[in-house]
Amino acid sequence: RPMFRRSHLKILLIGNSGVGKSALMNQYVNTRFSSRFRATIGADFLSKEVHIDGRTLIVQIWDTAGTERFHALGTALYRGSDCCLLVFDVTSVYSFQALEKWHKQLLLQIEPEEEPTFPIAIIGNKTDLENREVHTEHTAVQQLLQHPT
């Protein structure tokens, strides 16, 4: 049985503004990093061709605006998604605390029958910076990883 049902994969990056979603996307697709912050307006995506087990897969990474006013994009943006990466900035405890809100928003948008098996990963970004406020050994991090509802 093939690992992927289709020849493309749609991945959503979700999290507060400024956590580095665009930087993650650009680093993965273009192997290029920029420390300049430019807020995403609405949504943006980049594609990358990946070869897995002799198959070619087109990976679309969707970068979403991390502000409340763009939540209306939700349904269209989430439609057809194969997985979601919830992103927070390890130097901002606020961005970590907001993951619960982002997760709930995601669950409202995906198809109810997909909810139990919809792949979701949590990414702590900006780990190269020194003024870290969130550590993986924190109880809250462990709870979110075990029960992200």
Fourth-tier CATH superfamily name: P-loop containing nucleotide triphosphate hydrolases
> What Rg is obtained from the alpha carbons, in whole angstroms?
15 Å
**Helix and strand composition category:** alpha/beta
What is the CA–CA distance across the termini? 31 Å
Average pLDDT: 78
Do you know the CATH topology?
Rossmann fold
Number of helical segments with 4 or more residues: 5
CATH class: Alpha Beta
Global shape: globular
Tally of strands: 5
The oligomerization state is single chain
Largest sheet: 5 strands, mixed
Model regions low in confidence, pLDDT < 50 over at least 5 residues: none
Helix content: 25-40%
What is the total domain count? 1
* Element string (H = helix, E = strand): EHEEHEHHEH
Strand content: 25-35%
User: At CATH's second level, what is the architecture?
Assistant: 3-Layer(aba) Sandwich
| Strand arrangement, major sheet | 2-3-1-4-5
Please provide a written account of the structure.
The protein is an alpha/beta fold. The chain has one domain: Rossmann fold (3-Layer(aba) Sandwich). The chain has helices at 21-30, 74-78, 93-97, 99-109, 139-146; strands at 8-14, 43-52, 55-64, 83-89, 120-125. Strands 2-3-1-4-5 form a 5-stranded mixed sheet, sandwiched between helices. It is globular, with a radius of gyration of 15 Å. The protein starts with 7 loop residues before the first strand and ends with a helix. The model has no long low-confidence stretch (mean pLDDT 78).
